[in-house]
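Structure request: G-protein coupled receptors family 3 profile domain-containing protein, Lotharella oceanica.
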Amino acid sequence: MVSSIAIVLVVFDDKNHSTSLLDATCQASPWIYCMGFAISHSALYAKINRAKALTLDKMDAKKSRHVKVQASSYLKWVFLEAAIEAVICTVWTTTDPLQWERKCASSDTDFCTSYGTCSSSDAIYYVATILSLHVLLLLHMLYVCYLSKSIPDEFSEHKWIIAICVSSIEFHIVAPLLIAVTWEDPTTSTLITVVALFAVDFGLLTMVFVPKILMRHRRITEDDETRETILFGLRKQARKDNRVEAAKDDKMEARQKKGIGMGRVNRNEPIARNKLCRSLEAAPGSTGSDLTTIDERKLPRSCDSTNPKKIEIGNVKLERGSVRNDCSLTPSEAIERKGSQKKFLPRRGSNSHQ
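Returned structure:
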């Protein structure tokens, strides 16, 4: 792990090294630790997020069409997190870099016990920013693991990643407090720093690789094979159903964009394609003032009830009235056959009769 290199830099002092070299190690320590955390955390996040996308999101009819399982879509999280850490470290290094400084632990006498440390005037604010960012990222990964709780361990290992996140959060909170309490005791504070860095990295490596080693040597029984066969069949059927539902949704969206089934009449298409189930009741020789009433309560269940109450076909204005089951007529055919209908209602104020 990259962040483990910071353990070596922590134990440097001015007994065997120059002050300029110690200043460089002080400034390099935050970079090494932050870049190591960014690489390890983003890799685990990309792993659990990819497992979630392949299993849960792909089976969701609403999300499956927008899920892209590509290496580039997950590498961006690695570069994004590394960029955020690099920005914080760059600002820290340029504005208030850490420098090696030797201080007295006590000044009661002419002689004092001194200790050397990396310090700067605003170091506490940058340390708090980095630790807060790391805790928030770990909490977010815990939330993603919670969403992936139904995925089998063979695919996501979310249980082990949860253990990694919980242990890392504990060290990010407890270790800084212990270091602050023992700051004037260089031996104790250095020991706490080394143990915290080692424990976080060792725990991560243990939780990632030990389950794989155990799974590699696990003996597969007939029950395990049967269970995997059933799960494979269920996932295959779920993916098939998901594709069918997605195709239906795409078809429905395409029809809605064209205005089909939304109450608009296309004069060049059959009425059936527009899903307008209505009858035309008009007398021979009727003009644009003729009206035909259609009772909406008599519409068959297969008809679209969202059609407007008044529909214009040519110069004839129509309203809903009695229903005719023949919905395959074009507007021109419907007007030609209007003389065969039962009843014609004249416009209000008109002297025309049936």
